[in-house]
Write a structure and sequence with these properties.
Length: 446
């Protein structure tokens, strides 16, 4: 079988450029999906907060279902074609264009469909781009350094979200007078943050496209790549039940990631609806949350390589469950802030360590395919969390009750993860990548 041409090695500039993509694309989920546009939609576009929460949940769930279907297929096709950056570029620019189109959403219920369609399309493009971005990780660092590279990139992503939120707050929403003649009565300073996200993503994604090495093309045409990629995917799916380690990990991650993503998607809406936070308060909270999350991701990156990704994920999930339970019962904004910042500390480690664990387990020449399955497990039940949250919120008339459903996903995922047995011991900090050896330059890369 013809396989892809491996990467010969990545320079320090190439590694930094790869990490910088997290800085670039984190603006979309931070500003649009969570803290600014989500709250704007629920409070200014939708008929009421509860209806807006339910509609937002449907959009998140619909986009997640599309990602679940498309990501394994596209990942397998990309493995056969070779290069991953062309796919990454297409989905990055589609995400940026979708963010820009959200600018035209006016604060009226008649614009509900417009906002939800472009938000769902942007979310789809964002998630599909992640498949090819994550798949590049296996070629850029030796196994003993994967945790640090993944964690530092994730921490840089939170820093990017922080900077974009800060500019949104002081450069647009709180600016007096607003820049560029924006009309506060039409919520234009808030809506303009979507244009900022589009520009942010387009500009800061350039380094990875220019300087991070990519696999060479295999010379296989697109039609053949599709046919062979689908055949490879089918063989992998049939073999997956016998791949106990990968299969169990993917199942566990499917469950706990659903809880993480639902918390992340509805954090701004919960703050606005339950605690009455205004837009500027939500953004300030988001900035503080990104600081703690970035520090957590970067700090736990060393722990990942030291004790292994599985113990790192377990520690993070236990902490997230305990702190999340506290956030459901507190009444004051002060306690919400205190616990919320503690919650943020463990978001990054759970996500970054999951990525590094997967990179340690997958065959290098099928990284796109397996990271497509990785994306699939992150979205296969993604509709379930938002839909259950939306249903419970509507039925009980309580956002607290709706948010409580996310803790169930964290606990179930944690229990399943405990049953995963890894090669090289429970930590597996030095687990070798299966399927190939690292090249000399890559193996020596710090």
């Amino acid at each position: 079988m013809t396989r892809t041409v491996p990467v010969a090695g990545a320079s320090r500039r190439g590694l930094v450029s790869w990490c910088l993509y997290d800085w670039a694309n984190s603006a979309f989920p931070t500003v649009i999906e969570t803290f600014v546009f989500a709250a704007f939609f629920a409070r200014a576009v939708a008929a009421d907060v509860e209806t807006g929460t339910a509609q937002w949940g449907l959009a998140v769930g619909g986009a997640g279902a599309a990602v679940a279907v498309l990501s394994p297929v596209l990942g397998a096709v990309a493995d056969r074609a070779g290069a991953r950056k062309p796919w990454l570029a297409v989905f990055t620019w589609l995400c940026a264009a979708s963010a820009a189109m959200l600018w035209f959403t006016e604060p009226t219920p008649s614009d509900t469909a417009w906002a939800l369609v472009w938000f769902a399309l942007g979310t789809l493009a964002f998630e599909l781009g992640q498949v090819f971005y994550n798949a590049m990780l296996v070629d850029l660092a030796p196994p003993g350094r994967l945790g640090r590279l993944s964690g530092w990139a994730w921490g840089l992503g939170y820093a990017g979200g922080l900077c974009c939120l800060a500019i949104s707050l002081w450069g647009f929403i709180q600016a007096s007078p607003p820049p560029f003649g924006l009309d506060p009565a039409a919520q234009e300073p808030v809506r303009a943050t979507t244009l900022l996200v589009a520009l942010w993503l387009a500009v800061f994604s350039l380094p990875i496209l220019l300087w991070t090495p990519d696999r060479g093309p295999t010379g296989i045409g697109l039609r053949r790549a599709v046919c062979e990629g689908l055949a490879d995917l089918w063989r992998t799916l049939k073999r997956l039940p016998r791949e106990a380690r990968i299969g169990r990990f993917l199942l566990a991650r499917m469950i706990y990631t659903d809880g993480l993503n639902t918390i992340f998607a509805f954090g701004g809406i919960y703050a606005a609806g339950t605690f009455g936070m205004a837009f500027d308060e939500i953004i300030l909270f988001g900035i503080a949350l990104n600081v703690t999350a970035g520090l957590g991701a970067a700090g736990f990156a060393w722990i990942d390589d030291w004790v292994g990704p599985k113990p790192t994920i377990i520690m993070a999930l236990v902490a997230l469950t305990a702190i999340g339970a506290g956030l459901l019962v507190v009444e004051s904004k002060t306690m919400f802030w205190t616990l919320g910042l503690g919650l943020g500390t463990f978001f990054g480690p759970a996500q970054a360590a999951s990525r590094s664990l997967m990179a340690r387990l997958v065959p290098r020449d099928q990284a796109g395919e397996y990271f497509g399955l990785y994306a699939f497990t992150g979205k296969a039940t993604a509709f379930l969390g938002p839909l259950i949250l939306a249903w419970v919120t509507v039925e009980t008339g309580s956002q607290r009750a709706g948010m409580a459903t996310t803790l169930v996903f964290l606990v179930v995922g944690l229990v399943l993860l405990l049953s995963v047995r890894l090669p090289g011991g429970e930590g597996s900090g030095g687990t070798k990548l299966s399927g190939a050896k690292l090249s000399g330059e890559n193996a020596a890369r710090p």
